[in-house]
Amino acid sequence: MTVGEALSWAAKKLLEAEVPEPQADAEWLLAHTLKTSRTALRLNRDKALPDEQWHAYEQLISKRAERVPLAYIIGEQPFCGLVLKVDERVMIPRQETEQLVEFLSERLKQLNDEHLMLADIGTGSGAIALALAAKFEGATVFGVDISAEALEVAEDNAKRLGLAKRCVFLHGDLTEPLEAIFASPVFNAIVANLPYVADSEWEKLEPEVRCHEPEIALKGGSDGLSVISRFIQRPLKKLLVPRGFVALEVGAGQALKVQNLLRHQGWRQVTVVKDFAGVERFVFAQR
């Protein structure tokens, strides 16, 4: 079995399983098996594949054909220049959330504060918290999650990336742990990527999401906004310093409703930002 033959077999098997990008995933998994790059694979298609590596590759392809997400099989996911360890305890960080970090970072730069205090609610793998800590060397970031299992992943990522000294992870519901610690406003920004998939949309999701990613990180109730609504009702302004702001990622078609929820809670400076696909995806509210 050569590299090229192995790739052809794998791509066909993944295509039959209706995996969205069979050729790319076949390459990623073989590169992972051989500890090399996809480019190297293409340059060495005629190279023989040792039996041991072939059998290991065959097992990985079988998992992917069962619609186990690629990131869970490989065990990692790139995010904002970092490589995060991920498994089924956490949702896989999305490209849209990378855009949220970029938009958030631009706003933070405008504050001209070297010692930022930031909070990431629903931190999961720690993706947003760690990306912000990496971008702002003087920042202290608090990540909160209701899942103790997710926090284990976040803490492991922080240690591995050398960011544990500036990233504090707390177990609890939404901002409750922060409210218990901080009696006065301290945060420059509170970012939240909370569950927003409506019950009616759940069965329509791809098997990779519906069957493998944690429901607690994705399902947002009948309209998708149950967790986001509870977040907006928390005393967020008591945690934010003047000019501090809240940043939310929301589902397609939810931005206007979230905007109205914020205004109902007394927020006046509320803006909606589109993602790169033109979807109204991010909502910002400034104190």
Protein architecture, described:
With 287 residues, the chain is α/β, with parallel strands linked by helices. The chain is 42% helix and 18% strand. It has a 7-stranded mixed beta sheet, with helices on both faces. The chain has a two-stranded antiparallel ribbon with strand order 1-2. The model has no long low-confidence stretch (mean pLDDT 96).
State the order of secondary-structure elements, H for helix, E for strand: HHHHHEEHEHEHEHEHHHEHEE
The proportion of residues in beta strands is: 15-25%
Fraction in helix:
40-55%
Main beta sheet strand tally, sense and closure: 7 strands, mixed
Total beta-strand segments: 9
SS class:
alpha/beta
Tell me the Rg in angstroms: 21 Å
Q: Could you list the spans in which at least 5 consecutive residues all have pLDDT below 50?
A: none
| Overall mean confidence score, pLDDT | 96
List the strand order in the largest sheet.
Answer: 5-4-3-6-7-9-8
Query: What assembly state would you assign to the polypeptide chains in this entry?
Result: single chain
Q: How many DSSP helices?
A: 13
The gross shape turns out to be elongated
How far apart, in Å, are the first and last alpha carbons?
A: 62 Å
Please supply descriptive tags for the structure shown above.
287 residues, alpha/beta, seven-stranded mixed beta sheet, two-stranded antiparallel ribbon, 13 helices, elongated
